[in-house]
Amino acid sequence: MPRGGLVAGVDCSTQATKVLVLDPDTGEIVGSGRAPHAVTGQDGARESDPRQWWTALAAALAQTGRAQDVGAISVAGQQHGLVVLDLGGMPLRDAILWNDTRSAPDAERLTASIGATAWAERTGLRPVASFTVSKWAMLRRIEPQTASEAAAIRLPHDYMTERLTGRAATDRGDVSGTGWWSPSEERYAADILGLPEIAIDPDLLPDVLGPRDRAGELTGAAAEELGLPGGTVVGPGTGDNMAAALGLGLAVGQPAMSLGTSGTVFAVADRPTADPSGVVAGFADASGRFLPLACTLNCTLAVDRVATWLRLDRDDVAPAGSVVVLPYLDGERTPDLPAAAGTITGLRHATAPQQVLMAAYEGAIASLLEALEAIGDAMGGLDPAAPLVLVGGGAQGRTWRDVVRRLSGRPVLIPALEELVAVGAALQATVVWRDEAPDAVARRWRTSSGTQLEPEAADHPRLAEIRAIRDAVVATESLSGAGR
Would you name the residues annotated as active-site residues? Predict the structure, then answer.
């Protein structure tokens, strides 16, 4: 392989930065690296110093052993995080991460200001605590001095791309998760930026690049710090969910479910979507189309915690019987219950720990399947013949696979590639470097090749039982919130 002939994809996630180096002709992974991040906070707070993302990128690139052979690079970042910078490009404070739930009251006030329907129509979103717009409103409320000193407002991937190139740039996929950009108009929503709770000068925001636009080339300083060749091409980058969809080469209407610390369901759409309920976020994607998506805060981490409490291995389960677990250990985003705690019902003297663990799996998957139904409604239907693509760490777990098949009634496709966010970022780097269509690269790399599992008969009674308990909890939480 000639010098500069490889591509690098970066997954700057909540917990770590992961880098894959690939051969752009075949998609073969020829190097990989990973370096952790520290996340701090309690009582709903989740924050990280953005500078450690850069340090982690340098460490992960060094681990690959192939940094000097990279000709193009793109960064996929955790969505929605709020990074505020001073005039010198230095962070004014730690970044407020997507899973920080403190801005829930700000989200409620923003929604009330123009109404849920207007928000959905303008931005594809209804404000919840996860979105950047709510975090910015919170920062202006609790740290007005910091907000007034902000010379730049960035998402995590924007911050990394700017350090690579010196250019303030984002992409349509990631920016569609802020709450101040319009997927239908493909531009910042001036009326949203002008709301009293927001009051953002558009000059503080980055340029929005198209799916095949270059952000630029690596600066000399960045090349020296990271060990990359000078002149390395830098793609526009995107959000982590958009990168995963790009890496998979999803067809329009094909559903996907990602089982990680959080859970997500999404599908590629050919038109914008708007859901005033807030269950479905009407994002844009990284290919020029759209990506309606729903996210839960509690997925594999919550179920693993239940297993630890019960002193069970992850797959040591038994039919749940009457037990229902709603594993809302960190509050919840879908349903929108930021202050909720976990709930267990249906316990008997004869209940075994293995039944409780199975119920935790079912509670996590039930929320995702209901959200997938909402995505289908927003899109006008999913492809009924397409298998459900299952990705993320949980996709490798036997019980996760079994529960998804039993509760969904769909065939399940598990791609062989596991680090799909980094693969998607590398695919984007290839697209902008070689001016190729992303679908063509995905087919050449065979990114969706894997194992297909046949469906089981959908267990509709069990889903109905879980949802009935969930509805009761939602009603209780709503009444409690009304009294606070």
Answer: 240
